[in-house]
């Protein structure tokens, strides 16, 4: 627990310092990189956050949910675009990441959907997002808020 | 007597159900069904609708004739696909540079209930200045989507709100109003910009 707090603080400090570092915390084998999100207009619209989650261990890990003070209902959603070009979005459920594999939360695919924002997402700010795993493990990352027109973590 | 009447009603009921099933089949899967999806949009000149742009001007398909057009559907409460599409388009327009000035770029909402003129104005203001936001009464939006052969449907979410499933492709029309091609969602940018140039060139060919 102490280690979590320490790592989280370190991550927060480094992120605030403008350094892009892999957030390594909680289940030692889970690495979160390139987290980013878009600024919101007010609080009525849901926000979305993106990142890459890697399992560097020997056992599968199962992502079961999200928590953040920014939104009452954070949830992993998946956008799908069918053969007719119609996009739809639905909760992704539990996500198993095999050993040595990564999943990408990226525009048009999986994303952390931030429903019922508690405050507007302001460009230049960051917010903590906690990934919850089925073994009780948690990984918290500081997610930078980029422009509403951002296309990726570098924008 | 009473029994025959019941039998009669029963037979009529069964007949009605069979007829309904047949009509349903005819309209959905049968020869009376809609054209296969993926069908091309009609020309802008064959469309008929009235909307309002984000500056309050009355607009319609004729507004787009004379310049090549890039048009797409979305809604401002869309957290993922729509800002991504708008950002992609902003990037394509940046790549096109001055050529982008010769185009109409229109974002048409499929959620007019929440996307008022003011909402559209605020939203498009965050993206490339060439992008215009169009909204209007639901029945007019339906006419636009029909002309584009686009679809949209309102879906309730667990948070008590609703989201919209909708066609996410970007449509390209020549200056004449003729449909040229579409850019599918997820298509790499290296394919998108040449497609847009093709629509721009059709205009030049049409003019000579």
TrEMBL record, chain A:
Organism ancestry: Bacteria, Pseudomonadati, Pseudomonadota, Alphaproteobacteria, Rhodobacterales
Pfam families in UniProt: PCuAC
Protein name per UniProt: Uncharacterized protein
Keywords tagged on the record: Plasmid
Domain of life: Bacteria
KW Coiled coil (keyword) present: no
Gene3D superfamilies the record matches: PCu(A)C copper chaperone (2.60.40.1890)
UniProtKB/TrEMBL annotation, chain B:
Domain of life of the native organism: Bacteria
Gene3D superfamilies: Glutaredoxin
Keyword annotations of the record: Copper, Plasmid
Family: Belongs to the SCO1/2 family.
Protein name, as recorded: Electron transport protein SCO1/SenC
